[in-house]
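Handoff note, outgoing to incoming analyst
You'll be picking up this chain. Sequence as last confirmed:
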Amino acid sequence: MIAAPDASLYVAQTTPAPPAGPADPGGQGEDFGKSSPLGFLILVLFFVAVAFLIRSMTKHLKRLPASFDEPVADKPADADEAGSGTGSKPA
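Most recent structure output, in case you need it:
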């Protein structure tokens, strides 16, 4: 009697093997995601610059008037009648 071959010996590959790529795919080597002290220094300098800009902006905003509307001046009653141009001219 002939024994059936073991099914675990046969492996079917259903997907093709991925093509060979570069040795370092997209810069994801051992240093990927690590920052340098220079990057930290630049970040701190940005924070200091933003703090000075906020300080300067606050000073400038305090100097602004509460409203940019022109103040309404009280006109005397005689000025309205004489300057309207609809009445008769005095002789």
